[in-house]
Design brief:
The protein has about 160 residues and is α/β, with parallel strands linked by helices. About 25% of the residues lie in helices and about 25% in strands.
Length: about 160
């Protein structure tokens, strides 16, 4: 009789994923009790699918997809996954570039990623290749720019001196 998978520690998940994905996972470590990994863009969808479908990981819940503007170093997309049955999580990071930021969409792997990707596109300007409907979700249609980018000019700072 096969034993059922058990909860993995973050370090164990990071180690297993590093062994499985090799150089395509340039960063794999435990932080705050969970695995944090960085994957190359070409393997992002494969990693996400593995985390969902492999019974040892059983990541059946997508918590969020968002981004970080790292200035001159470009943007990174951050995806947080969780296993409700095994009670462990993984944070996945993927570089999106600076000039034309984009990564593959995972909306078909996790349908809940659809809105998260739309919001990230709308606020950071990161395109999710293969997403079926990148249209505005929060901002008015006439809004121009990406307000969560570091280079976005806040009009209140232009209209009056900023004391900070």
């Amino acid at each position: 009789m096969a034993s059922s998978p058990e909860r993995l520690l973050g370090a164990d998940i990071a180690r297993r994923l590093q062994a499985q994905f090799g150089d395509d996972l340039p960063e794999a470590e435990e932080r705050g009790g969970q695995a944090v990994v960085r994957v190359v863009p070409d393997r992002y969808r494969n990693l996400i699918g593995t985390l969902r479908d492999d019974a040892d990981y059983a990541m059946d819940f997508i918590d969020f997809v968002s981004a970080v503007d790292r200035g001159e170093d470009g943007f990174e997309v951050v995806t947080q996954l969780w296993s409700t049955s095994l009670r462990h999580g993984v944070r996945v990071k993927v570089d999106a570039g600076r000039e034309d930021p984009h990564v593959p969409s995972i909306h078909d792997i996790y349908p809940g990623a659809n809105w998260h990707e739309r919001e990230t596109w709308e606020l950071f300007g990161i395109r999710f290749d293969g997403h079926p409907q990148l249209v505005k979700l929060l901002l008015p249609e006439q809004f121009e720019g990406f307000p969560l980018r570091k280079d976005f000019v806040l009009m209140s700072r232009v209209a009056k001196p900023w004391p900070g």
